[in-house]
Amino acid sequence: MGQLHTMEPQYVRWALGDGSAKSSAPRTAFKFNSVGSQFKKQLGELMGQLHTMEPHYVRCVKPNGLNQPGLFESSNVLHQLRCGGVLEAVRISCAGFPSKRPYLDFVEHFWPLAPELYHRKDLDDRQVTEGVLRLSGLQGYQLGVSKVFLRAGQMAVLDKQRTEKLSKAAVLLQRFARGYLGRLYYKQSQQAVVRLQSWGRGMLARRQARALREQRAVTVIQKAWRSYKMRQQYQEVLYNITHLQAMYRGLGARKQYAEMQRQLSALVVQSNWRGAKQHKVFMALRNAALVVQGAFRCKYALLELRQLKTEAREATKLLEDKKALENKVKEVQGTLELVQGQRNELRQEVKELKAALAEAQAAQRAVIEERNVAHEAARAEAAAQLKAAREGAAAAEAKLAEAQAAAAAETQRVAAEKAELDKQLKVAQDYIQRL
User: With 0-12 CB in 10 A as exposed, 13-18 as middle and 19+ as buried, what is 65?
Assistant: First the structure.
């Protein structure tokens, strides 16, 4: 039927009055092709196509006389149907049994009206059809050999009953389906509600747990922060106290160090003053000794000169006296050199004593510095070393005093000897000059 709607045969156009239809067959000079032969040929082709497609009914109706789409003329169409005998054929068909169907098609289409008969294996299609018609309450039907014949309108009644039965079945199925879906939706909703409740309770529990953890964390943070602040304050106070103690102890140590430096400076000044004083005394004693030696030597030289004058009268004895005098001068010079060597040794001993005193003072300074580092532990040791240094210095001073006294005595003796030698030398020189 779809191909009938799409195809457009030439004879249909000619039958409907379309003068534009032309034959598609080629014209030749040897064969005459009339309109009747063309119609016959096209009709044969159409019938062949219809037989291949098994159409039920074909009737071509022209909707309007203007050949325009979308325009339907009711009177014109009715006139075509009346002239074509379609209305009469419908009337005749309605007066008889226009609806007819094979038993198999009828059963396959209307079995929902009697499903218990359809599922019985001992009944054939004719018996099932008869049972369906009997249960449906129809009167205008006849049963043939292979088909069932129905009067006009009976097929519509059966279709209505079938539709109602199918609608009831559909409603029943929908009821069960909707009930099942409703129960399923209810269960799903219940499960969803329970799940949502569990989620909500879990969320509330997690929120409460998070709040408890946050509160605990806040408590821990506060504790840590307060501990940190208290440690910071304690360290600050401890630092301030330690700093003050260090400043106070440093001030005391600096005062003590300044006092020790002052004492050391006083000790150095005293030692220098005493050394200078002793040196001055020593120089005065030495000068006095030299003067005394010079006086005694001059005196002895004069006495000896007088004695030499008395003895010089002898010429033979003069050379002997000269030689003896030269020997004596040599001895005096040797004695003088010995005295000078002893004096140099005394000076060296004085220098060593001064170096020992300086070392003692250096040791005292080292003890003072170690005392500043070792504080109270080294104070006793420093005091002991200072005392030992002072004792060493006192011993050195005593030794120096003894050395100075010995040097003074020796100086006096050497001065006396020198004076005597000078006197003898002067006498000898005068004697030599006189000679």
Answer: exposed
| Assigned token pair, 320 | 């002997």
Q: Is 101 left (phi over 0), alpha (psi -120 to 50) or beta?
A: beta
Q: What is the 3-state secondary structure (H, E, C) of 361-419?
A: HHHHHHHHHHHHHHCHHHHHHHHHHHHHHHHHHHHHHHHHHHHHHHHHHHHHHHHHHHH
Beta strand 147-150 pairing with 99-102: antiparallel
pLDDT tens digits for range 241-277: 999 999 999 999 999 999 998 898 889 899 888 888 8
pTM for the complete prediction? 0.31
CA nearest neighbour of 398 among 356, 361, 426: 356
For 218, other C-beta atoms within 10 Å of its C-beta total 10
pLDDT tens digits along 146-162: 888 777 777 788 888 88
Is the torsion defined by CA of 290, 294, 295, 296 positive or negative? positive
Q: Which of 271, 229, 259 has its CA nearest to residue 372?
A: 259
